[in-house]
Amino acid sequence: MSQSLPRRLGRKVAVAILALLVALVVFGGGFLIVTLNKSLPTHGGEHVIKGADGTVEIIRDEYGIPNIYATTDADLFRAQGYIHAQDRFFEMDYRRHMTGGRLTELVGDVDEAKQADVVIRSMGWRKLAEEEWDLITEESRSYYTAYADGVNAYIADRSPGELGLEYTVLSLSVPVADIEPWTGIDSLAWLKAMAWDLKNNLDDEVARVVAYDSIGDTELVEELFPAFSAGDHDPILTGSDDTNLQPRDTYPRAQARPLVAGETAGSDTADGTDSADVADPEASADESGSDASADKAGDLSAGGAAGAESEAQISALVFESQETLDAMPIMLGRGSGVGSNSFVVSGEYTESGMPILANDPHLTISYPSVWYQVGLHCVEITEDCTYDATGFSFSGMPGLIIGRNSELAWGLTNLGGDVTDFVVEKNTGETTYERDGEDVEYEIRTETFNVAGGDSFEVEVRESVHGPIVSDLLISDDRTASLPDAPRDFSIALEWTALKPGTTGDAIFAINRASNADEVAEAAAAFAVPAQNIVFATNDGHIGYQAPGLFPIRPEVSDADGDLEQAQLPENLGADGRWPRPGWDSSYDWQGYYGADDMPASLDPAEGFIVPANQQVTPPDLGPYLGSYSDGGYRAQAIRDAIESDIEAGTPITVDRANEIMLLDQSPYGQELAEHFATVDTDSERLSEAQGILSTWLENGAHAATDEAGAAIMSSAYSHLMDLTLGERIDGFGATNSTRYLIFFAGLEADSEWWDNPSTEAVEDRDAIMVAALEAMDHDLSEQMGEDMDEWEWGKIHVETPTHSVMGGDAIPSIVRNYFNGDPLPIPGSSSIPNANGFSPTVDENGLVDYEVGPGPSMRMVVDLSDLDAATWIISSGTSGHPRSHNVDNQFAMWAEGETLPWAFTREQVDETGVKTMTITGG
Length: 923
Fold this sequence. Notes:
The protein is of the alpha+beta class. The chain is built from 30 helices and 27 strands. The strands form 6 sheets. An 11-stranded mixed beta sheet has the order 1-27-2-3-6-7-8-9-16-17-19. Strands 4, 5, 20, 23, 24, 25 and 26 form a 7-stranded antiparallel beta sheet that branches. Strands 15-10-18 form a 3-stranded mixed beta sheet, with helices on one face. Strand 16 (532-538) and strand 17 (543-546) form a beta hairpin. The chain starts with a helix and ends with a strand.
């Protein structure tokens, strides 16, 4: 998560630590050892879960990775809940408090926790999970219940301090309540956190508004967001052959799904439309005509929003809304670096003659890891026991998110697209807003928040037909007073697919047991959020791709809607999701969701491989319109090029080669821009020396290895280039390593006005601004690594420090911080390359950039379908969340070096690698 919560919590803990130090002096080392060790679990011997159907055996290898063997599915999930609680209960409890909007009950009176609680409670994650409990199947409910039974069997009769050392530290500053029993709804609620961090388009929507506020020209703003085709990279599916893709203007083809799960045709949907009509998205727009719609509602920046004053007001409220949402804890990762690589290669091109599948989700490198490796095996496949699968789970969730079973392997990458919108609601009174010329009452409720060791507080939450109002959550009085007539005239609502109840809770179990393309498609139909690209391979030689998820069918109100090559005009910002849309005109509303059969899919493509790496799914003229957001495709193209090169050379692809491909580190920033930096004229000897290093680095392939000075120079120069151009031109610009900006800069002419730094008297062209960026780079890297360029290395500043989600951060007392956090290691790779260990390019007030790794490959896996034991895997820390456990970070150094572990699947291999066994019985 972000470090704001540890900073505030640290101040509260600092004084309390002194009391602990006094206690240690008085009672000695024995007291210390007992305190530190009392939460460590026992991984051997016999354990009891009352109600278990039979005897369960759990075999762990030297890394603490467990494989569970049972005679019923229920027992598998009981045991999974038990071992998750053994190794990761504080993480689970922290997630439970977060998804329930109850962080203050755990950490006390911390401003950031309060703000996160208000936002989450306003969105109603817990309430949605309760609704979804009634939507999922009875079988799924039984699995979540069994999992909860296992968790509760472990936590019963254990004090908080016996479950996690974190509770002991927290108890020094806030009262720690007794641990509540776990429920299946606690698990379902985690799906909302997954979806929240893996949404993408909202950041782009805000960035457009931020840029427009300073630039005032939508066409210029859209230049900063080049369409995917501008990058000249291949989409995931390259054409209609071997896919289900049809011309875009024929969609929707299948019956649309309603906006609210469980609605039937002819009933009113959540947005007031008739669900019987949702299959015709053009109907509402055509009835009034796009011109009439533009006159009625689309002008968010001129007459339709009461002129420039309201334009500024809307921009300010969007900024406030985003600031509020940014206070949310980061659980899986957030920002442009969040994504993933995956690829699958047909057996025609592999050494084994069977498909090879690889996956490495780029999420926050959290500590402990977001992933927990586990095997779920039925001793015998029967009607009551249907699982034989291993892979990567989330603590707090039964089943596997990514992995393989005896017949199929699957991987996930974030699909992107657009599933979130800011909607501008025009207020007509204290409790009403306009809707098609009528006054409509907001739904209003009061949420009460309890604070550990502090006073409870209440917040009034408003909700429109589109979603919760997020523009007036915890906005300070002085900020609110500065907005013209705020908040009476306008409010900003958040519409998001995850705020509609869905059945993703079923999809996890379905894909865990899928054995072919049809069963993957069935699982995908239930997989509502977060939208993921599914890539899969089977043990009978098939490879495939399936897009799941709920994607809104959007009406075409303006000519530019859905045409990403065409900029929206200020007088009508359209309905395609690129900009905040008017809520007072229903012709802009979502019309339902694309049916499952309309979602892109492919089986056994002729080229023999598939590469989903967050790039656009389909060509712009094929398939449904899924939104404007996608990665620029540099990572995907690097992987495609490597596979194609091996195929053309006749070199069969192996598991080792697949791992090498995930570690490719050629920098597209170097390929696109380093030549300009290296050749620009300068009179400075120091800059000439840096240019020489950069030229050599580029000639040698522009690799982001830890010993490369050129990688450091390029990363710094690019960061300062953005700061000196876009950062100076756009007030509130958020610097990211998004490939959209790389594509933007690479396509500019040398004399483009975009190169100019408006804060200087001179009018800079490309050469002038690049010299300025090199000068800023020299200051930055000299401050961080010394002035001797011979000593500069990328790995000296590009490091990963394992940082605890709550006990991390500089403000936490060092005696605690050093105990809970790990030691930093140099990390290769960078943003927008396959080995995607990104960083934030923000330049601080001292002219420095923090190159610490942000999102990165949180795990890596490769599966060869020729052999159940021919697979490898690794995560970024270890299975345990206990700092005293040797399993807390025993994979970190290997992960940092790009190494991997053998992945045992068969019982024979599990027995051979096992070092500790425990059994669970029903008592």
